[in-house]
Amino acid sequence: MRHGDKINNLGRTASHRRALLANLAINLIEHKRITTTLAKAKALRGYIEPLVTKAKDNTTHQRRIVFSYLQNKEAVKELFGTVAEKVGDRPGGYTRVIKLGFRRGDGAETAMIEFVDFNETYNPNAGKVRQQKKTRRGGKKAAAVTAEETSEATAVEEVTDAAEEAVETAADAVVAEAVAETVETAVEETVEAAGEEVAEAAEAAEEVVEAAAEEAAEAATEVVEEVAETTEEVVAEAADATEEAAEEKPADEEKKDGDA
């Protein structure tokens, strides 16, 4: 008898059933939507939703627990990454089962199972922000307390805004003064540096001019000395030649007289 047995064994042994559900869960995590039989879809929904709840707590411990079920690193990475981010605000009910009718052949009833938050077309609450429910318990007292709290909150906000404005104004003034001082200091340093550079450039130019003048004077002195030496040599040679010519004339005259 199967009294109180609520588990659908799907006509398989325990190990075969675990392997089947693990493979279906991996495919659902990868493709976000799969089509299978209605019995397998319902069994898969009770298998994968606790794993998605564990994926909200991204810790090593939870990852190891989920990996012990799926035995697939890529599926665990996708579940704790993309899927967990998408369904993070949903308090359960992560999957949807839609009946598709009976398939031809064996006549089994088929269904599509998908993650609710990954179907933007069929999700009427997509993009809406969840709001906490408000109760009207307490009546007038609660309303009076709420009004007082609202007025106090408004006064606190006004005081806070005024304080923030005063702080911002003071901060702007301090910043402006600091900027002005910095600019003045920078300008003075720049002017001083420029003056020093100009003075250094003038000194360097004077040194270059003095060096050039000294070199030119030395060169001119050497040229004059060389010209003077050359002139003295030419004059000496000319004097020697004149003396030789003067000595040769009397000898020629004596020869002429002897011949006569």
CATH fold type of the domain at 14-118: 50s Ribosomal Protein L17, Chain: A
The CATH superfamily label of the domain at 14-118 reads Ribosomal protein L17
Helix content, binned percent: over 70%
Measured distance between first and last alpha carbons? 185 Å
| Biggest sheet layout | 3 strands, antiparallel
Outline type: elongated
**How would you state the average pLDDT, rounded?**
84
CATH architecture of the domain at 14-118: Alpha-Beta Complex
- As a whole number of angstroms, the C-alpha radius of gyration is 55 Å
- Beta strand %: 5-15%
Question: Can you give me a brief rundown of this structure?
Answer:
By secondary structure, the protein is mainly α.
Written description of the protein model:
Helix content is 70%, strand content 8%. It is mainly alpha-helical and 260 residues long. Helix 1 (14-31) crosses helix 4. The longest helix is centred in the last third of the chain and has 121 residues, at 139-259. The model has no long low-confidence stretch (mean pLDDT 84).
